[in-house]
TrEMBL record:
Every GHMP kinase C-terminal domain range: 191-263
Annotated ATP binding sites: P90, A91, A92, A93, G94, I95, G96, G97, G98, S99, S100
Swiss-Prot/TrEMBL catalytic activity: 4-CDP-2-C-methyl-D-erythritol + ATP = 4-CDP-2-C-methyl-D-erythritol 2-phosphate + ADP + H(+)
Biological source species: Donghicola mangrovi
Domain GHMP kinase N-terminal: 67-129
Protein family (similarity comment): Belongs to the GHMP kinase family. IspE subfamily.
Enzyme class at the top of the EC tree: transferase
Record's protein name: 4-diphosphocytidyl-2-C-methyl-D-erythritol kinase
Keywords: ATP-binding, Isoprene biosynthesis, Kinase, Nucleotide-binding, Transferase
Function comment: Catalyzes the phosphorylation of the position 2 hydroxy group of 4-diphosphocytidyl-2C-methyl-D-erythritol.
MF term (GO), any: 4-(cytidine 5'-diphospho)-2-C-methyl-D-erythritol kinase activity
The protein's annotated pathway: Isoprenoid biosynthesis; isopentenyl diphosphate biosynthesis via DXP pathway; isopentenyl diphosphate from 1-deoxy-D-xylulose 5-phosphate: step 3/6
Keyword Cell cycle listed: no
EC number: 2.7.1.148
Length: 277
C-alpha cells in the first residue's frame, strides 16, 4: 500500500514586511496561492526510514537527515517508511520547495501511520510549512503561522520562471531598507482576473528590491514575463522565481513557450491556481 501527496509550488502574490520580532524573524502580510506545478511524494511501508530523491530537479537536493522530508517524518514519529521525493521545483527559489515537500510528507505519513498531524502544523520545520500544509489561497501573517481566509479568487493561470540563481532567504531579509512597511489592503471579492491583477499591482513584495540587488537577473525575468503578456509580473517570496498571472490556460501556455524560447537555460513552468491539500 502506497500513499502519494502532491507538493505544489507556494507563491506569494504579495509579501509586505511590517515588522521584526526580537528573535529576528520578520512579521509578514502575504497573500499566498498554490499552483498545479510541484514535487511528488510517495510513501510505502518499511521497517526503516529511507529517502530517494528523483526527478529533473533532484541535483543538489540533500538526501540526508537535513532534507525537510526526513525532518517532517521525524516530527511525526519514529515509524518506518520508504519515501520517494520526485523533484520538479527548483530549490531555494522562493516557491517553498522544501517547505511544500515537508507538508506533503506530513500528509502522506499521517495517513500511512494513522497518526494526527503535528499540533504546530509543521512550523518547527520552517515558517512556510503551515501555509503549505493548507495548500489553498489564504492570507499569511505573523512570521508565517497565522493563516486567514480570503475571498474566492478569480480563475487564473500562472507562469513561473526561475533564472537558475539561488538567493539565500536570510540575506534577502537582511537587505531590507525598511522592516516597518505599510500593511496590505483588504483582498477584494468579485473581481475578474484583470481586475484582481489591477488590485495586486497596488500591493507589493518588499523582498523584491533586496533580492534584485543580490541577483540583478531577476529584472530580466520580470521583463520577459511582462513582455509575454502577463497581467502582472512579480517575484515570489525571497526569490529568485518570478510569476506572471494570466486569465486563461492558453495565454499562460503561450507565454511559457515564448519565455522558454528566449531563455532556454531558465526553468519555466505553468499551471492553474488551486487548492491541493
Ligand atoms: C520568505 C518566505 C515567504 O513565504 O518564503 P521563501 O522565499 O523562503 O519561499 C518565508 O517567509 C520563508 O519561510 P521558510 O523558508 O520556511 O523560512 P525559514 O526556513 O523558517 O527561515 C529561513 C530564514 O528566513 C528568515 N525569515 C524567515 C521567515 C520570516 N518570517 N522572517 C525571517 O526573517 C530568517 O532569517 C530565517 O532564518
Ligand atoms: N525537500 C527539499 N527540497 C529542496 N531543498 C531542500 C529540501 N530539503 C532541504 N532542502 C534544503 O533547503 C534549502 C531551501 O530549500 P527550499 O525550501 O526549496 O527554498 P525556498 O523556501 O526558498 O523555496 C535548499 O537549499 C536545500 O539545501
Amino acid at each position: 500500500m502506497e500513499n502519494r501527496a502532491f507538493a505544489p509550488a507556494k507563491v506569494n502574490l504579495t509579501l509586505h514586511v511590517t515588522g521584526q520580532r526580537a528573535d529576528g524573524y520578520h512579521l509578514l502580510e502575504s497573500l499566498v496561492v498554490f499552483v498545479g506545478v510541484g514535487d511528488r511524494i510517495t510513501v510505502a511501508p518499511s521497517q526503516a526510514l529511507g529517502l530517494t530523491v528523483t526527478g529533473p530537479r533532484a541535483a543538489g537536493v540533500p538526501t540526508g537527515p537535513e532534507n525537510l522530508v526526513l525532518r517532517a517524518a521525524a516530527l511525526l514519529g519514529s515509524g518506518g517508511a520508504e519515501i520517494t521525493l520526485e523533484k520538479h521545483l527548483p530549490a531555494a527559489a522562493g516557491i517553498g520547495g522544501g517547505s511544500s515537500d515537508a507538508a506533503a510528507t506530513l500528509r502522506a505519513l499521517s495517513a500511512l501511520w494513522g497518526v494526527d498531524l503535528p499540533a504546530d502544523r509543521g512550523l518547527s520545520l520552517g515558517a512556510d510549512v503551515p501555509v503549505c500544509l493548507r495548500a489553498a489561497p489564504c492570507l499569511m501573517s505573523g512570521v508565517g503561522e497565522v493563516l486567514s481566509n480570503v475571498p474566492a479568487l478569480p480563475a487564473m493561470w500562472m507562469v513561473l520562471v526561475n533564472p537558475g540563481v539561488e538567493v539565500p532567504t536570510p540575506a534577502v531579509f537582511r537587505g531590507l531598507s525598511r522592516k516597518d512597511n505599510p500593511p496590505m489592503s483588504a483582498v477584494p471579492a468579485g473581481k475578474d482576473a484583470q481586475g484582481f491583477a489591477d488590485w495586486l499591482a497596488t500591493q507589493r513584495n518588499d523582498l523584491e528590491p533586496p533580492a534584485r540587488a543580490i541577483a540583478p537577473v531577476i529584472d530580466d525575468v520580470l521583463e520577459a514575463i511582462s513582455a509575454s503578456g502577463g497581467l502582472i509580473a512579480r517575484m515570489s517570496g525571497s526569490g529568485a522565481t518570478c510569476f506572471g498571472l494570466f486569465a486563461d490556460a492558453g495565454s499562460a501556455a503561450a507565454a511559457a513557450h515564448q519565455i522558454k524560447e528566449k531563455a532556454p537555460a531558465w526553468w519555466v513552468d505553468h499551471g492553474a491556481l488551486g487548492s491541493f491539500a
